TrEMBL record, chains A, B, C, D:
Ranges where the record places region Disordered: 1-22
Protein name: TetR/AcrR family transcriptional regulator
Organism: Streptomyces kaempferi
PROSITE patterns: HTH_TETR_2
Transmembrane segments: none
Keywords: DNA-binding, Transcription, Transcription regulation
Pfam families listed in its UniProt record: TetR_C_11 (PF16859), TetR_N (PF00440)
Amino acid sequence: MNLADSRERHEGPPRGRPRSEAVERSIIEGAVKLLEDGVPLADISIERLARTAGVGKATIYRRWSGKEELFVDVMRATEPPDAELPGTSMRDDLIALLEPLRRRGLASRSSALLHNVYAQIKTSPKIWAAYQATVIEPRRRTTFEVLRRGQRDGELRDDVDIEVINDLFVGPMLVRAVMRPEAELPEDLAEQIVDAVLTGLRPPGR
Amino acid sequence: MNLADSRERHEGPPRGRPRSEAVERSIIEGAVKLLEDGVPLADISIERLARTAGVGKATIYRRWSGKEELFVDVMRATEPPDAELPGTSMRDDLIALLEPLRRRGLASRSSALLHNVYAQIKTSPKIWAAYQATVIEPRRRTTFEVLRRGQRDGELRDDVDIEVINDLFVGPMLVRAVMRPEAELPEDLAEQIVDAVLTGLRPPGR
Amino acid sequence: MNLADSRERHEGPPRGRPRSEAVERSIIEGAVKLLEDGVPLADISIERLARTAGVGKATIYRRWSGKEELFVDVMRATEPPDAELPGTSMRDDLIALLEPLRRRGLASRSSALLHNVYAQIKTSPKIWAAYQATVIEPRRRTTFEVLRRGQRDGELRDDVDIEVINDLFVGPMLVRAVMRPEAELPEDLAEQIVDAVLTGLRPPGR
Amino acid sequence: MNLADSRERHEGPPRGRPRSEAVERSIIEGAVKLLEDGVPLADISIERLARTAGVGKATIYRRWSGKEELFVDVMRATEPPDAELPGTSMRDDLIALLEPLRRRGLASRSSALLHNVYAQIKTSPKIWAAYQATVIEPRRRTTFEVLRRGQRDGELRDDVDIEVINDLFVGPMLVRAVMRPEAELPEDLAEQIVDAVLTGLRPPGR
DNA sequence: CTATAAACGAGACGGTACGTCGTGTCTTTCC
DNA sequence: GGAAAGACACGACGTACCGTCTCGTTTATAG
């Protein structure tokens, strides 16, 4: 990301000493380490990050313009790899897509990241937009494809707005992770949600 | 709330000059004013709040122990009054309960509060718990009652966990407000969601 | 001095917590201590001064606008008390006035102050002016009075510009202290200078 | 000077690309230019010097070990050529030696150099010693020779320490340049001083 | 003509200090 | 004893230089 990176503006071969990738890694890893150790996000200052990574402050500011921007890359570094779709049916694909969201709420590592960093990132519209564009949107797009395929194959009604459909599946899972992260999530939650939404909540035979 | 309030500990008649309610109001109103004016939450310091309200810093700390705690009261001050339930059917009651959530995403005033302050509050577990207990939980309880009544009256299946059911209705609305607050929300969104969840997304006749 | 002090601008009784004199003293004393310990002036940062005095940086900046201004007060704190004039003759008074200048070059304490701080102060015209006005000028004035009295009493020619006369006495002493501070100064240097300048350097009988 | 020059240590013919004299010149000239433009010495960083001269920082550090050392060469580059002695008499030679000091206080260019750089150089004992040895001492030696010749020729008393005599002539001129550089210096100041010191300040006939 | 080696412009790097701001507490005076 | 004012120790902010260190490139001598 490195929105602050001004090198990209120039043409021609890069001049001067190149930026160290090792340094970049050690900063991100230092941040992840601190979060894993339970340090509150508010207590993670650029100053402390620099100390932890054994790095000068300027080296951080050379790459990111501030804490929010840096943490977009931190988030990205901890994103689970994209789920593999079984492809057996739309139902199974949806479950596979929701499952990682459920897991997030469990692992203390990801939990800290999701519930604190996520909140922090939201406070800056620009950063939030960047995070959405590079992390959330791709997944959304994948889900949409699965849903449209489902409509084509007759597994899904096609008289409801696809965006609403998406929210009907994703929303219930996310509302738990965001609003009640401390609550336990049953292992088959993804299955429960997908099936209930497909079948409907009206009692059978009405 | 006023966790910092130390008066409650003492017995007997209050001594000395009583606290001015006007001061209390002007602090909260000052905070709301700043938020409405689009000042980023990060730029609202206790120092600035005191200046804005024409009040000493100590006067603020005498009432709240910090920014998060203060903003719980600010949030409460802007909460819409509880929705009135028509009582005609579970479906109508659910729509009435979801409708305020939809409106939140529209008014710029509430939008700022929800998407920034909300995020900020989440960073402090203690404060988040307090907010949940006094603001969110009561509504949740109301919703649960409506759902249970629906089960009793045969409007709702009773073989699905009531908590999951709750999320199936609330989640889709919230995921929009939280993840894509800038998107337009169709006026009949609450209706769409409730009906779709009740009916199910499987194509009719399958 | 406290050029940075903005309180003086306001009328009426001072409001809020008054500035602590003890803090003021401990800052100046800390600076003097560091200089006495041989710490190079260039190594005395505001940051270090604050650490040494156990004081916040803002507390220093509240009183002085920077290092130069602060060191004017440090210099003033170490100025020797004004010499007492015997009054027996112009010659004796002049010697009494020059003697403290000679001593300056000896004591390691004052030496450090004179030869480093002095140089530092000179780099800022504004500060140098303030130092001259409050420290140097008063002594100059005293010397001028002594010289004029000498002219009245017939101890001194009155056909030479009094400013030049002043320099003839003060210059030789100062040139040693400033240009060759490491050289030893004979104990009767003040006497030697005054007598030589009075008598003239032409061989007797020419 | 080039104390940092490490090439001299090696034997044999120099290998690799030789140092560019043009670069050396452009650095010094850049420094002189900045000083003439009234840039405060404190604002002239190595970084800025490199930018101004269009030169890499390492190129500067390859030649000088720091700012003070560099400015010794800058000072040397602006030293007026040694005064030519008329040789007609000790009095005339002394006046010729003092005259350049008087002129220094006038020209804004040299003024900036003398009163700021000079002060800066003094803060580093090592550099100050180097400056004294290569610039000041030679002049001092010349003055001493003139004075001794004067003693031999009967123009000067020989019962006063020659170092004190030197200070009696040089001090009055220098005290003006150093302590009151802003004051106007009468054109015949050198003459006034030399004659007054030779004749003495006692009224004639006492 | 190639190889070697140092100089060079550029700029990254770990640091330190800058001067400002906000934190939560403390100390005044006035009410 | 409440309240406004503002001092206080602390520590983070983002910037500027420090002196050192790679980079790719240039310019000399040696073979």
